[in-house]
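Contributing new records

If you add data, match the layout below exactly. Sequence lines come first and carry their own label; structure lines follow with theirs. Keep one chain per record. Anything else will be rejected by the validation script.
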Amino acid sequence: MKALLVVISLMGAMFATSTAAMASEGAATQYQASFLAPMPDGGFSQWTCSGVHVVNLVSIKDSEICTVSGDTTGLVAGVYVGNPTANVPPFGEVPWFSDFDGVTATRFKAIIVANPDGTFTQHILAYYN
């Protein structure tokens, strides 16, 4: 009987620990965004994005992938790190705004890849605290 109580107690402790670990990972919300963005030359680029917005005890962040088409004149493939802004051609020194809720990132990393069809893919990891 004593052994059974120990096993039950251990199982209860394991459940409590795993529940706490899951709760500390935070809440994730998937989202999509699509919009036209003005380019410095007067044209417009079409941004089609999907990502996840994660809120937990440690951070608030977005992880997102965007396809940029239309007028992509001046976009340059590369890695851009903002803290909180980065010089991203052709836009100049700019912050990153969340496509989830519009909040300005405190820091971000954007990886821009030129695709063979003339579009660009942008990978974003942005933090908001």
